[in-house]
Amino acid sequence: MSEFVSRLRDFGAMLNDWRRELDWPLLAASASLLIIGLIMSLAAGPPAAERLGYSNPYFFVERQAIFALLGLIIILAVSVLPHLWIRRLAIIVFLASLMLLALIPAFGYEVKGAQRWFRLFGFSLQPTEFVKPALIVTATWLLEQRRQYTGVPWTSMAVGLLVLTLTFLLTQPDVGQSALLTAAFIIMFFVSGISWRWAAGLFGSGMIVSVVLYSSLEYVRSRVHRFLFADESGTDQIGRSLEAIKRGGLFGVGPGEGQVKRNLPEAHNDFIYAVMSEEFGFISALALIAIYAFIIWRGLRLAARLKAIDAKAAVAGLFALFGLQAAINIAVNISLIPPKGMTLPFVSYGGTSILATALTFGFALALLRRSPSAWKGLG
Questions:
Q1: Radius of gyration of the chain (CA)
Q2: Could you tell me if residue 378 is inside a domain?
């Protein structure tokens, strides 16, 4: 009995430390995005359910609510873990995701010419979403080993994991996620103190691969061509998105009054920003961007003050993943870049996306937890 009481006290002390060390503004910002995602699911979910033939008009709304709750639980649960267990969890998730990526050609199912998903118990699982944050944390651990154990090609091993992961992604093919992961990896690489020549080499290799993909993949050329020569009538996806944003004006046409959610196939996920802009206006859309900007600014600011180089690099890479994905999605919606098929973090519908983003956030919050040995002082 005394041992049980002792363990209970230790657990209570751990939770008390977690409560004091956690960065609550970042947690509040992530919860705000999940709430916005639920609101937007109420707006865009019923038309999507009707279009896809579901008898329950709130099919996507109910699932979004479940995934938002699970996402919040993942953020909280992962953020409790100490740094050592974050590394272990990242390695486990990375290996499991890599194995699933290898199995996709045999057991995955194809959507719109890309084979990226598994169908499990009525849900779709996309391993790509989980392999990204897990690779960032795993690679930073490998890079940190070079400071303790010289003579081992730790840097080459980290790059090798990236190349292996990209090989699986490009065979699906998933060019957008490959570019996102490479960009975040380069940022993590640079922050970890690796020579700029490695980063320059990765960037140059990425440019060469981009040219090869454009030359060899018809769907890549098609997307670029449609972007460069957009349909001015507003009948293509980007055209409809822009028309919706314009129609929304400053304050929107009103909740439920938008039209783009009825004529865009991916309005509830890839083009949710256009739905929000149309119904709630430019002011609301700008406020959403402000939340993302706050998360990236605060996350990178806190990461810069970490003493541990591996934690600093991992957090920078994780927030780069989060921020770049949000920027890419919004840029597609306002016709700055070609369509990428990438969700808006925590806001778009998509179970895998929400859960993987929650894991990313949980990793970052755990690595940012304040302790005298890990922080240089927070002014």
A1: 21
A2: no
| Residue 373 counted as domain residue | no
What whole-number distance in Å separates Cα of residue 65 and Cα of residue 264?
A: 22
Residue 14 lies in a domain: no
Q: Work out how many domains the chain is built from and give that number.
A: 1
Residue 207: φ, ψ to 5°? -65, -40
Q: Is the torsion defined by CA of 136, 141, 146, 147 positive or negative? A: positive
Q: 127, 97 in Cβ contact below 8 A?
A: yes
What's this model's pTM, rounded to 2 decimal places?
Answer: 0.88
Q: Are 75 and 358 in contact (CB under 8 A)?
A: yes
Tell me, yes or no, whether 151 lies in a domain.
Answer: yes
Q: Write out pLDDT tens, residues 48-78.
A: 888 888 889 889 999 999 999 999 999 999 9
Which range marks the domain in which residue 336 is found?
A: 22-368
List, as one string, the DSSP characters of 345-379: TTTSS-HHHHHHHHHHHHHHHHHH---TTTBS---
Q: Are strands 109-111 and 114-120 parallel, antiparallel or unpaired?
A: antiparallel
Q: Cβ atoms within 10 A of the Cβ of 181, count?
A: 25
